[in-house]
Specification:
Order of helices and strands: HH
Shape: rod-shaped
Distance between the termini: 179 Å
Radius of gyration: 65 Å
Helix content: over 70%
Structural class: mainly alpha
Largest sheet: none
Strand content: under 5%
Length: 168
């Protein structure tokens, strides 16, 4: 290789390196400008983000206190509800037992009343109806006697025998 060719090749390589460095410098400048724009946007957004984070933290602290208070109240309500349910259960059990006792008493009273009514009806039958039957029997006898007397003496013996058999 001769010296001129080597010199030309070295010049081309140096020129290419210079163009490459120039392109890199332009890219770096653009990157620096884009970074600067991004930094300006972030700097403008940063106070808003900090304020939002602060508000969120405050809200979180307040919410924790309210949630703790609500949880405590809910626990109190559950305990009270459980106590009231136990009382209601005892009341229902007591009412059920009392109702059963009262039903048993009512059944006993009803049985006694029915027994007394039955005894009264038997007494009425024995006291009133028996004398009425006796009076009816005596009246029937008087009626037969009066009928017999009004009829006169029987005409034949067979008729008298039949009448006596019917009477017996």
């Amino acid at each position: 290789m001769n010296a001129d060719t080597t010199l030309i090749l070295l010049t081309i390589f140096v020129a290419m390196t210079a163009v490459s460095f120039a392109a890199q410098a332009v890219a770096m400048m653009r990157l620096a400008r884009t970074t600067k724009e991004m930094k300006e946007r972030v700097d403008a957004f940063l106070p808003k983000a900090e304020k939002l984070i602060q508000t969120a933290e405050t809200t979180l602290v307040e919410s924790r206190a309210q949630i703790n208070e609500i949880t405590a109240r809910a626990n109190d309500i559950l305990a009270l509800t459980q106590t009231q349910m136990l009382r209601v259960d005892e009341l229902v059990a007591d009412a059920s037992s009392r109702a059963k006792i009262q039903l048993d008493r009512a059944e006993t009273v009803l049985e006694n009343t029915l027994t007394r009514v039955n005894d009264t009806v038997s007494s009425v039958h024995g006291t009133i109806l028996r004398p009425i039957r006796e009076i009816t029997g005596v009246a029937a006898g008087v009626k037969a006697a009066v009928g017999h007397l009004l009829k006169g003496a029987p005409a034949n013996v067979a008729q008298v025998t039949t009448d006596e058999e019917m009477f017996i």
